[in-house]
Description:
- It is a single chain.
- This protein is mainly α and 246 residues long.
- The chain has 13 helices and no strands.
- Helices cover 79% and strands 0% of the residues.
- It has helices spanning 3-30, 36-40, 45-78, 83-98, 101-115, 121-127, 132-143, 147-155, 160-171, 173-188, 192-197, 206-212, 218-245.
Amino acid sequence: MNPRKEATYRMLSLIAAVIFVLPCVFLVFLTFDINPDDLWQMDSLMEFICAYKNTAILAIAGVLIQIMIALPAGYAIARIPSPKAQTFFLLTCVFFLLLPQQALMLPQYLVLMNIGWLDSLEGLLIMTAFQPWMILLFWFAAKRIDSSLFDSAICDGASNWVLFRKIYAPIVRPYVMIAAFLSIAESWNLLEQPMTFLQSKERYPLSMILMQLSTDNAELKNVLCLLFAVPLMILFCTMVKKIIDT
C-alpha cells in the first residue's frame, strides 16, 4: 500500500477510535465529581444492589440455558443428512430471528400468566431461552468441521454422544465463548421484557433501575452507569484473551 494512503487510513482509524471512546472517557471523568458519602447514603442503594443481583442471575442462568439448547441444536441441524430438512430448520431459525420481538410480547405475557410465572425471574429466563442466532452460529461452526473427522470416528465405532463430546464441542469452543459473551451482554441490557413481564420492584434488573433514576443528580447516575458497564468490559477483555489463546 502507498505510504501516504496507509498514513491516511491510520489517521482516520485513530479519529474514529477517539470519537467512539470519548463518551466513555467523559463518563469516567464525571464520576470524580461525586461525594462518596452521597453514594453510600442514597435511598436507592439497596435497590441498586438487589437489581445488580437480579441482572447477574439473568445473565449467568440465561447464558447457561441458551447454550444448553443451542449447542446441541446447531450440531443436530448440521448432522441432518437431508439438505432440504436442513434448509427447513435454518429458515425456521431465520424466521424467528427476523420476527419483531414486540410481536411476541403479548403471546409470551399470556403464556407466563397461564403457567403462573408472570412477575418472576424464572419466566423471564424461559422467554429468552430460545436464541435463533445462537443456533445459527453453532450450525455454522459445525459445518466448518471437516466431515472426515466424523466419518473416521464413526468407523471406529463412536456414538453420536462421543462425536458431540470429543469432536464437536472442543472444536467449537471459541464460538461458544463468543456466543456466551453476546448472550450475557444482551441479558445485561434487557429492558423491554422486564418492563412487560415484571411488576415487583425487587425483581427489576439493573437496566430498569437506571432507566427510572432521576436525572437531577447527573454525577450519581454516571457512577451507576459506570458500575453497570464495568463487568461487561472486564468480561470482554477476558474473553478476547482466551479466544486468542485458544
